[in-house]
Task: structure prediction
Amino acid sequence: MQDRDKKIEMKVGDLVRVRYRGAVAPVDDIAGWSDPYVGIITETPESKERVWKMWCVQTGSFTIIVPTLDSIEVLNSIPGNRETKGE
Result:
């Protein structure tokens, strides 16, 4: 599981693996987290009012991700895109 205090760098086009934490799951216990979902970052926040979005390969839909709550692993970073950091 990713370190909750570490900022993760993601850009539009990056391939990521995301696990969502269940409502009562302990942060350090993988049993309470979802199966991994793989997707491509499609939107990064430029302000506090915007959200992180990815296109999920498994569900064939857009989903919101929250770097401070979800476990996110960047699998393949696309060079040259605008860099952003999770807050």
Q: What stands out?
A: The longest strand covers residues 37-43.
